[in-house]
Amino acid sequence: MSQEALFPKNFLFGGALAGNQYEGGFDKDGKGLSIVDVEPAGPERSQMLAHPKNYLNIRDDLYYPSHKAIEFYDHYKEDIRLFGEMHFSALRISVNWARIFPNGDEETPNEAGLEFYDQVFDELEKYQIEPVVTISHYETPLGLVKKYGGWNNRKLIDFYLRYAETLFKRYGSRVKYWMSFNEINCITGSPFIAGALVLDDVPNKIQAIYQASHYELVASAKATKLLHKLVPGAQMGCMLAFSPFYAKTCRPEDQIAALQQNRVTLFYGDVHSRGYYPTYMNRFFKENNVELEITDEDRKVLKENTVDYISFSYYMSHTTDADHKSKLASEAFEPVKNPYIEESDWGWPIDPVGLRYSLNLLYERYQKPLFIVENGLGARDDIESDGSINDDYRINYLNDHLVQVAEAIKDGVDLIGYTTWGPIDVVSAGTGEMEKRYGFIYVDRDNKGNGTLERRKKKSFDWYRDVIDSKGAVLKSADLEERSIH
């Protein structure tokens, strides 16, 4: 056991959440529908995400988990009190765009929605928890899909900026760290979730994906400019879903395959952080018949308004080779199993060292502060006869990742903080399930929305508080080959 702190005194420790996965109250106080509000649970979910055209209206025969989620909308005081009990110094949340502008294109915001977040910030301040706010976390108002076609329409830039300006003016004195779009690069594999795109009948999907990506990147740069003007000292970060790709072998062709697959994500970081399109995209655009509508003003705003820091989620690494898909945009890549690492209950590779690798790669590439804003283990939790939940597998997972984070800091990486995904159990973004649990706090709700909503502390609750209090001194630097996550 380590005897000294592994993290600096001002290091931010906490958790991360998304409004559509925990708030509930989908129709309360004037909130409009967001794109997630028409995503059903069960087998229909994957069908909807792949072909959303026929799912844009709520159906009576389907269950929509975002409508109630874990009802944070009515339990926020209790939940934030528990985060305070864990001694969080930061909580990453999102503002649900459709709470503020129900259809997305209104000229004036919904005051009841703004007042809800006033109350959330009041509670965070009570427990001295720093809010880290995502402006758009897969929560584009559904009205912007139906009326304008989502982010393939340049008009969404202005609607987004009106929304962002409302947030900056209302909450700017209370929020230092902002993020423009959650996991912006996921638009390549999940165009509806990350880009509000309905591509069922679009012949060149890659063209549509990258045009929408461009408008989001421009919107982010303009929001960064606006934030710096309205709230001096506040910082804007981009947010990437980062899962580094390893080459299966040292065969040169496999190395090129990994290089190309990593560029799927790094393209977005390059534009956010450097302010211009990388040259490697020229060949890709040419070979895929992509001709983007980019104005001189777009280029200027991108160049002059780069992000202040790079935030990212890390859950796993991937492995690829030259014989599998390795494109900058495709509906899915073909995974290659890495024989050196284990997998979770849901088949996700578990690679703590990959987090250290990612931190070094991103910091060396961008030379800007980094912020780990999602990391965690989704697993099935069992309640013992005495009421306890002994999630040692989660403790082991987080312990081993945090040990590697500490190693990256020793390597020289400038890191703002670390927020685990799902400090309280929430609806899974990918599957809509509740049984895929990440939290330190158990919520009594099942996959069909049944349950008492009782909050119950897991074993990891006290463990994470001790990690925070000791700044990592209680972490165990065990041999990872002997560590079991099952």
From TrEMBL:
Gene3D superfamilies from the UniProt entry: Glycosidases
Gene Ontology annotations for the cellular component aspect, listed alphabetically: cytosol
One Pfam family here: Glyco_hydro_1
- The active site lies at 374 (nucleophile)
Q: Record's InterPro entries? A: GH (IPR017853), GH_1_N_CS (IPR033132), Glyco_hydro_1 (IPR001360), Glyco_hydro_1_AS (IPR018120)
User: Sorted alphabetically, which PROSITE patterns does this protein's record hold?
Assistant: GLYCOSYL_HYDROL_F1_1, GLYCOSYL_HYDROL_F1_2
One annotated GO molecular function? 6-phospho-beta-glucosidase activity
Question: What EC number(s) has UniProt assigned to this enzyme?
Answer: 3.2.1.86
The entry sums up its family as follows: Belongs to the glycosyl hydrolase 1 family.
What NCBIfam families does the record tag this protein with?
Answer: PRK09593.1, PRK09852.1
Q: What is the protein name for this chain?
A: 6-phospho-beta-glucosidase
Q: Which organism is it from?
A: Sporolactobacillus shoreae
> Which gene specifies this protein's sequence?
ascB
